[in-house]
Amino acid sequence: MNTIDRIVEKLAKYPDVRFLRKDSLLTIYAQTSNGFNVSIEQLPTEFVVAFEGWHEHFKDEADALNCFVFGLSEECRLRIVSRGGIDCCWIVEALKEGNWIPKE
Q: Is the pTM value of this prediction over 0.70?
C-alpha cells in the first residue's frame, strides 16, 4: 500500500470531505469558500505537496505528509497576491501565538 492509498483509507472516516484521486495524485477540495485545495502527488523519487498555486518538493515521505496535513489544518493560511486580476504569488502562513507569519 502506497502513501496515497493510506491517505484515502483514512479519508473513509470523513465522508463529508470531497476529494479526487487520480493515479498517484490526491486532491482534497476546499471545504469552505475561504479555503483552498490541498494535494499530494507521489512520484518515483519524490513527493509534491501543493496548496492551489503554491507547491513544494519532498524526498522524505514523513516531511511530505506533515506538510500535507498542515495544509488541511486551521493553523495554515494561503495568502494570494493578484496583479491585474491574475494570481501571481502564493504565500503560505502559519498561525503562531495568534499571529499569521510566513511559513519557512
A: yes
